[in-house]
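Pilot study result, target chain (155 residues):
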Amino acid sequence: MITAQAAEFAAALPGGGRLGGLDVGTKTIGLATCDAGWRFASPAHTIARTRFAADLAALTAFVGKERLAGLVIGLPLNMDGSDSPRTQSVRAFARNLAPLALPLLLWDERWSTAAVERAMIAEDLSRARRAERVDRLAAGYILQGAIDALARWRP
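Predicted structure:
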């Protein structure tokens, strides 16, 4: 099941469970996880993208290792809320995750990278350090936004 509705996603997870967050880029996929009570998200790591079969294998391993019940995928909408070519690519990526057999929530990520970049600049991290961390931190930011919205359905 793929949805953009938090209530529908929560209904697919009646017992709660740990969630994963994905920031899907053209070159990397940032990963994050949250606790089973959906209270706090933590950045995990970054997968370098190659071909989809390898990406799926890495995500399958991540889901299994972390025992995830569902995934929140950042959806890069235009600033006016409309779809872009990148949005269509992420939607296709989500559809191709069907072998994982997990509920998927597409979550608006318009400000995630900018917010994470600002925080890292405020911490005075070098460009190289920011580039190394931005995707997994953005995944954590996306996941935290989603679990904050899911608060009324917390297990």
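One observation from the pilot: The two ends are 20 Å apart (CA to CA). A full batch analysis is planned for the follow-on phase.
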